[in-house]
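During the no-cost extension, the postdoctoral fellow (Dr. R.K.) reprocessed legacy sequence entries with the updated structure-token encoder. One reprocessed record is reproduced below for audit purposes.
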Amino acid sequence: MEVKKQDFDDHRTCFRTLMNQQIIITLVDQESSVETVANCRDISDNGLAVEINHPVDIGTLLKIQLDNDDQMSIPLIDCQGRVIRCEQESDTVFLLAVELIDSQ
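Re-encoded structure tokens follow.
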């Protein structure tokens, strides 16, 4: 499992909307799907930062369920993403950089 320690602020050039909203993500792999609750830290037109309590492999596909919210520039009722970075922040918090690959 690849866990990188980097500064997220240097990686996305799009404007980000800061959030603190609970979301439901489904980790999809070739053998199974696992649904879990996570926290969306921020969102932009092409990605989001997600806090979760365990590491996730880079390249893992996600299904994301996020309630439509007035503070969001784009609604993400159901969308798909790919983990492009996983960074350990503490013993119980991992920060995922998720690239949006399909949104409705």
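The beta strands are 17-28, 33-43, 47-52, 61-65, 78-88, 94-103. Residues 4-10 have pLDDT under 50 and may be disordered. The remaining legacy entries will be reprocessed before the final report is submitted.
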